[in-house]
Amino acid sequence: MISGLPPRVDALAEVDPTAAGRVLTLLDRAPDAIAAAYLPETGEMAQTVRGVPGPDGVELRAEGTNLRYAAMAALGLARVPEAVQRRTLAGRSARDLAASVTERARTDADPGAVALAAWASAEVGGDPDTELLGRCRAALDADAPITTVALAWTVVAAVAAHDRADTAELLDLAVTRLRVQAGEAGIFPHVVPASSQPRWRRHVGSFADSIYPVQALARAAALTGDRPALWLAERSAARLCTLQGEHGQWWWHYDVRDGEVVERYPVYSVHQHSMAPMVLMDLADAGGPDRRAEIAAGVHWLDRHPEVVEDVVHERHRLVWRKVGRREPPKAARGLSAVTTAVRPGWTAPGVDRWLLPRVVDHECRPYEPAWLLHGWLAPAGATT
Fold first, then answer.
1. What radius of gyration do the chain's Cα atoms show?
2. CA–CA separation, 153 vs 120, rounded Å?
3. Going residue by residue through the chain (385 aa), what tens digit of pLDDT does each one get?
4. Which of 41, 69, 107, 333 is 20–30 Å from 121 (CA)?
5. Would you call the peptide bond into 370 cis, given omega within 30 degrees of 0 as the criterion?
């Protein structure tokens, strides 16, 4: 699939050839992982592909549908040759998928899906979709909360469409809204404004809630020369890198107020191989610092994870399992830690690490995970670290 060494992989190889080799292997397999989630009858993407027991061992079962993931799949597959796209999508291309996503998004109520569809339409579909961009603007004008990731994707959509649509006002509004929400340490809340959430939850933001804003601010700064936006992106990234685990883990939830970790687990594989590398390299391209050491450490966790004996990379099915989490009722540790840190910053729920050990591999793979792998590492020519 890959001819020659992609510039971003080559840049990583300069500091860590082993990590770069692992990335190359995952890139080669990523289209197969997306294909396992593609539903050719409807042209949609599954919510997830789950590993289930079968008579001949583990089998893969696609479940549900997800418009966001379909948009991300289009953005990722657009970085590989068209022959690979059509093999992955049962004869269709990434542009075909982007067109389908655009049409479905017209009647979708999720601002995040609309923003991603607008991004895919501009970057993959060939022309910005003014209707979707207008809906992005309407979501910002509405007197209603919006998730931080949807706001970040709106920024990226405006950047992607800027040369063929008048998105300057949308970009300025979205960047301004995003900028004022960052905590002093650079951590972002889950929803804007944070005050719209319950008291026990409003101070907590996930890794995604900060890493996507870093990407948005970096891409905006690269386009407009907005130094304050770049400075905030650098500060946010620096905080996440400072808190990176001993074995390269990108932790799950953070405190907006003081920038400390609220809950470490699960560790998501997509953070390790795709999201952190994609965003930190976007930041470097915009003039930010060199974070290749942190990127390599995150990639190495895929094979050197201390939490579990089981492999996270599944060789036979050519995919990466979704996460390593605690043995617990769903999100119990996160809920406990959110409550205790709401009462007092830094107060960790007692007994969490003793009784709720991170020993469970989640046997699923969501299509956006290999999609971001392709989008982040196979960046356009000229985008190097």
1. 20
2. 11
3. 556 789 999 999 999 999 999 999 999 999 999 999 999 999 999 999 999 999 988 899 999 999 999 999 999 999 999 999 999 999 999 999 999 999 999 999 999 999 999 999 999 998 999 999 999 999 999 989 999 999 999 999 999 999 999 999 999 999 999 999 999 999 999 999 998 988 878 999 999 999 999 999 999 999 999 999 999 999 999 999 999 999 999 999 999 999 999 999 999 999 999 999 999 999 999 999 999 999 999 999 999 999 999 999 999 999 999 999 998 777 776 677 777 877 778 777 777 787 888 999 999 999 999 999 999 999 753 344 4
4. 41
5. no
Decide if 252 contacts 267 (C-beta within 8 A).
yes
Q: What predicted TM-score, i.e. pTM, was given to this entire model?
A: 0.94
Whole-angstrom distance, CA of residue 323 vs CA of residue 358: 10
Strand partners, 267: 324
Q: Are 194 and 256 in contact (CB under 8 A)?
A: yes
Phi-psi region of 268 (alpha: psi -120 to 50; beta: other; left: phi over 0): beta
> For residue 45, what is the enclosing H or E element?
strand 44-45
As given in the structure block, the two tokens for residue 156 are: 């990226």
Is 156:119 a contact under the CB 8 Å cutoff?
yes
Residue with structure tokens 């966790």?
A: 301
Alpha helices in 89-186 (DSSP H): 94-105, 111-123, 130-141, 148-161, 168-179
Q: Which residue has the tokens 């930010």?
A: 288
* Cα–Cα separations (whole angstroms), residue 170 to 178, 230, 250: 12, 18, 31
The string of DSSP letters for 302-356 reads HHH-SS-SS-SEETTTTEE-SEEEESSSTTHHHHHHHHHHHHSTT-PPTTHHHHS
Phi, psi of 326 (to 5 degrees): -80, 155
